[in-house]
Amino acid sequence: MSYITFDQVCKDYPAGDSVVHAADHVSFGIEKGELCVILGHSGAGKTTVLNLLGGMDRATSGRIAVGDRIVTDMNDRQLTEYRRLDVGFVFQFYNLMHNLTALENVELAQQVCPNALNPVQVMEQVGLGDRMNNFPAQLSGGEQQRVSIARALCKNPALLLCDEPTGALDSKTGEQVLELLTRLCRDYSTTVVIITHNASIAPLGNRIIRLKNGMVQEVTINEHPIRVEEIQW
Ligand SMILES: Nc1ncnc2c1ncn2[C@@H]1O[C@H](COP(=O)(O)OP(=O)(O)OP(=O)(O)O)[C@@H](O)[C@H]1O
Ligand SMILES: [Mg+2]
After folding, report:
1. Which domain holds residue 150?
2. Among 24, 48, 211, which residue has the most ligand 1 atoms within 8 Å of its CB, making it the best to mutate?
3. Does this model's pTM top 0.70?
4. Atom 2, ligand 1: residue with shortest CA distance
């Protein structure tokens, strides 16, 4: 049994008189501590799958398990708890609070999690020890993304879910962010899932899940993940 299991997971959205099968009998497994890349074109169902895994949305049918917990059986209170304690999210456009400093953004995570890490130490870890008192508008895109990773990491989550984390960044800054994510995966044995439409990022992963039209097209185990500096942008 894998750490994460999707078993015949479907997510339907109503679209006028018909339905969109955003996830269509999706099945896969991800092992603990893996860096998994979910790859697919726009509309393939990547965000749908990530939101189901992170408990931000409910499946129409099928079963999702993380460790010994069945996410698809959770009630609303259990889902809130799961999102709050077990899952760290990183979004394409950072989603930082603009009226709070970088450090205060990270401290928000500390306030909702009893076993949170020290926010100052986490900021240092993402290389922003000297920018803690800046507001998001005073930081570059890559720095803002590193704050959002620090915020997710501060929760000390079992799962780090990243939806197009380099989508808004140039390749150089994107490399710094990917370097950070691969290091977190390696050093903390955090299970990291990265969504991308960019095939050149895929070989970073131990596991690559290709989605197309809401379906799993292919799952590849990659015995020799490349290093970030080897990405051919
Ligand atoms: N809340 C929703 N209501 C209706 N349809 C939706 C909703 N969310 C997603 N869809 C549809 O489900 C399909 C999959 O969407 P999803 O956002 O998962 O794709 P994606 O692979 O993340 O694409 P992108 O790379 O553009 O972010 C698309 O056809 C989309 O229009
Ligand atoms: Mg998406």
Report:
1. 34-57+83-230
2. 48
3. yes
4. 13
Q: Summarize pLDDT for 161-179 with one digit per residue, the tens.
A: 999 999 999 998 999 999 9
d(CA 13, CA 86): 26
Number of structural domains the chain divides into = 1
Distance from the CA of 15 to the center of ligand 1, in angstroms? 12
Is residue 13 domain-resident? no
Evaluate whether residue 6 is within a structural domain. Answer: no
Q: How does pLDDT run across 75-96, given as a tens digit for each residue?
A: 999 999 999 999 999 999 999 9
Q: Please state, rounded to an integer, the average pLDDT across all residues of the chain.
A: 95
In this prediction, residue 200 has a pLDDT band, given cuts at 50, 70 and 90, of very high
Nearest protein Cα to ligand 1, atom 31: 43
Four-residue CA torsion sign, 113, 152, 191, 189: negative
Query: Are 166 and 178 in contact, with CB atoms under 8 Å apart?
Result: yes
Enumerate the H helices of 129-170 as residue ranges. 141-154
Residue 16 lies in a domain: no
- The 3-state DSSP composition of the chain as helix, strand, coil percent (nearest 5) reads 35, 30, 35
Q: What are phi and psi of 113, to 5 degrees?
A: -125, 120
CATH of the domain at 193: 3.40.50.300
Q: Which of 6, 13, 24 for mutating ligand 1's site (highest number of atoms within 8 Å of CB)?
A: 13
Ligand nearest to the CA of 60: 1
Q: What is the tens place of the pLDDT at every residue in 4-31?
A: 999 999 999 999 999 999 999 999 999 9
Residues with a beta carbon under 5 angstroms from ion ligand 2 = 47
Residue 17 inside a domain? The answer is: no
